[in-house]
Amino acid sequence: MRADARRNRALILDAALDLFATCGPAVSMEEIARAAGLGVGTLYRHFPDRQALQEQIAADTLRRLLSALRDLAARPAPAWEALVLFVRHCAGLPLALAKTLVDDASPPPEVAELTGDVNGLIARLAEQAQREGSLRADLPPREVVDLLSVAVCRPGARADDALTTVILDGLKAPTAVGPARGAAVTVD
Amino acid sequence: MRADARRNRALILDAALDLFATCGPAVSMEEIARAAGLGVGTLYRHFPDRQALQEQIAADTLRRLLSALRDLAARPAPAWEALVLFVRHCAGLPLALAKTLVDDASPPPEVAELTGDVNGLIARLAEQAQREGSLRADLPPREVVDLLSVAVCRPGARADDALTTVILDGLKAPTAVGPARGAAVTVD
DNA sequence: GATAACATGAACCGGATCTTCCGGTTCCGG
DNA sequence: CCGGAACCGGAAGATCCGGTTCATGTTATC
């Protein structure tokens, strides 16, 4: 493969990643090409059609995410901390794209499998956090996964988003309800 | 206006309200007509084009919302309670539609004004709740409005949604983090 | 410098939706 | 009950929009 071709392929992937992350999965091929500083034709030279490009990017993203997640899950830290780090890690990833691919009927098998793995790992972390008492216990772990995906699978989600912060706080196990009014207490 | 025409108009509005609420603002005119049990032609007899229908429904929805909000704000209850009741009240309303209309450039003036009023009232409630100490203070009221709109302006949002619950919990002022260890305090 | 690989973007295509239109139907006053 | 005006239906036409192709011009490599 010629050097310029390789460079252009990289440009395309970068631009597409960026656009998918900030604008959602409905960006047109022309926008992507323009953002990469190339013509549409070039884009089609490297990816036979839109689906191929989407799959490539979604799969790459999910693979990266999965490996990060495995690292987090392997550490001996509290599960809650792992969840928070994970959510922070997700910011700026084109997850809305992956979500779209998965929600649609007949997702490409690789993407479906990767998503399954990711969701499974998150669910396990959630369960563990619940056992550790740091995550509210009134939600099935699956529901927690869905919630987090809302926080994370938005075009333009940022790690320190108000929404992300609020959702994480809302997911914390309630700190013991303060003492009754009028009571005198000693905190040990 | 003939009786059947009036009836059909009502059928259309009902069906459209329902579809906009559950499927988002991108429903096709044919789907709406089908849901109303009528032909597309009939739909176009009553509303000159898609925009007219959208505006009508969005404006109706916002008007209802605004009046409910005024009632809530007028009551002497705590502002936090009003906010929660408001959010519950929003479930099943086609607010995603209104949001789309407002987000787009050049929204119809009536819709824009209504939305402005609604947002303003919510922001005032949020501010009041912060003064009362029931709503976390580290977010500008405007941000709170945006957050709540995420909770509420989803196709198919339900009042007892996990997401809605979690967001509301995350918005609560943190129950005192607990005084420093070893301190003795009296709770009045 | 020759050649094959590559880039370009205007033109083409498909399908999805909005909108029109006219034959058929339904209501309503006389 | 009847006539006609208002109304309904849904196929056909217009329009839009993005994906894809391809003939032409350019560039890396040997």
UniProtKB/TrEMBL annotation, chains A, B:
InterPro entries this protein is in? Homeodomain-like_sf, HTH-type_TetR-like_transc_reg, HTH_TetR, Tet_transcr_reg_TetR-rel_C_sf, TetR_SbtR-like_C
- Record keywords, A-Z: DNA-binding, Transcription, Transcription regulation
Note the DNA-binding span(s) on this chain.
28-47
Q: Which residues form a coiled coil?
A: none
Report the Pfam families cross-referenced here.
TetR_C_43 (PF21597), TetR_N (PF00440)
Query: What region holds the HTH tetR-type domain?
Result: 6-65
The molecule here is called TetR/AcrR family transcriptional regulator
Question: Which species does the entry assign this protein to?
Answer: Actinoallomurus liliacearum
